[in-house]
Design brief:
- This protein has 370 residues and is of the alpha+beta class.
- 44% of the residues lie in helices and 18% in strands.
- The protein has 14 helices and ten strands.
- Strand 6 and strand 7 form a beta hairpin.
Length: 370
């Protein structure tokens, strides 16, 4: 029963989660420079909404690679990037800001929670160790094509979510709860998905064209013991997820082992064709409460054409997490010249290569237009 429920959630996840990240080819970038004792922090920003020609690149990829951290390993066609090179300082700046001070006051007033003391909690301490040095998020090729899909699906999802919240509020005020609300999360999600699919702005055509663009997240952890602990925890969570699918889990997902040079990655892959095959009569009956027969068949066909891959590994002192539609999308640039560091979109950092950079962000024009 648990395995069947997870398979149903997996189908919904494949269909609903394909558009959750995106980006493509343009020029929105920013570099933040660390302050010195004698001067305040500077923020250098270059934004070109409709560039007539590519930005002129003055610095070499090798020179940029020295300040971009893991950026020197990300592929050249990276479409969006946000990297922080002093995570501890970044977090402290937030805590010291007006917003951070307000958050700390609210936490103290509500439950006597001291945000700084929370780092002594093992789980929180581990999270801080992951972010205390460098961390980044990068989205790869094809993401820009998915941004518009995501926006339409997100609007439809928000509309359906608000409808359900109104329904919950009405039940709270009247004391009447219908069967749907009593049956739990699965029963809540399916009607919401039904409303999204039936929304003229978020049609099945969008799902048919949607793909999960490559998403890479990484954390630099210099301490080897801490790094191995975090990497083992993340890999363990993935394997637990695979095990939770039960004896029939191999019919929906499979373990993956990838090699990129000397770097090993492990993880799991939801295989669309397998997922479509295991949609048994019970699952079809559950979906029949929301969709007509033709829509069910079309949804299963769409699911059969989509794969989702999740992998993790350790590379050059970084714990790396990857998500995408295909294992081939997990790439490590062989040299700075083949990496994001060679992109004209990062020319904004060229005037600050002799400074200590706190953060760099880049978003392509297609993403901004989406």
């Amino acid at each position: 029963m648990v395995a069947k429920r997870l398979r149903n959630f997996a189908l919904v996840g494949v269909l609903g989660g394909l558009g959750l990240s995106a980006c493509k080819n343009g020029n929105g970038t920013a570099a933040e420079v660390a302050p010195t004792d004698s001067e305040p922090a500077k923020v250098a920003t270059t934004v070109t909404e409709t560039p007539a020609e590519p930005a002129v690149s003055n610095a070499s990829a090798d020179a940029r690679a020295k300040v971009l951290g893991y950026g020197k390993y990300l592929p050249l066609d990276t479409q969006a990037y946000f990297g922080v090179y002093d995570g501890k300082g970044f977090v402290q700046d937030i805590l010291d800001s007006k917003v951070g001070s307000y958050a700390q006051k609210m936490a103290s007033d509500l439950g006597g929670v001291d945000l700084e003391e929370m780092t002594e909690v093992p789980q929180v301490g581990m999270a801080f160790s992951m972010m205390s040095e460098e961390f980044f998020v990068a989205v790869g090729a094809g993401a820009g094509d998915q941004m518009h899909n995501f926006m339409l699906l997100n609007e439809a999802s928000n509309h359906q979510r608000m409808k359900f919240l109104v329904k919950m509020l009405d039940a709270e005020l009247t004391g009447k709860e219908d069967d749907e609300m009593m049956m739990g999360m699965e029963a809540m999600m399916m009607p919401m998905m039904g409303g999204i699919i039936s929304d003229p702005q978020a049609s099945l055509e969008i799902l048919e064209n949607a793909q999960m663009p490559p998403l890479t997240i990484g954390f630099k952890i210099s301490d080897e013991e801490a790094r191995e602990q975090v990497a083992g925890m993340i890999a363990g969570v993935m394997m637990e997820g695979l095990a939770e699918l039960g004896p029939d889990g191999e019919d929906v997902a499979e373990a993956v082992e990838l090699k990129r040079g000397d770097v090993a990655f492990t993880g799991m892959k939801f295989v669309g064709k397998k997922m479509a095959r295991v949609m048994d009569e019970d699952a079809r009956e559950d979906m029949a409460d929301v969709f007509d027969a033709a829509t069910i068949e079309r949804l299963i066909k769409i699911a059969g054409e989509k794969n989702l891959v999740f992998a993790t590994g350790v590379h050059d002192g970084y714990v790396i997490l990857f998500a995408g539609s295909d294992e081939k999308e997990l790439q490590i640039a062989a040299s700075p010249a083949e990496s994001m560091a060679a992109s004209p979109k990062l020319s904004c950092v060229d005037g600050y290569l002799d400074k200590k950079l706190l953060s760099v962000s880049m978003i392509s024009q297609e993403v901004l237009n989406g």
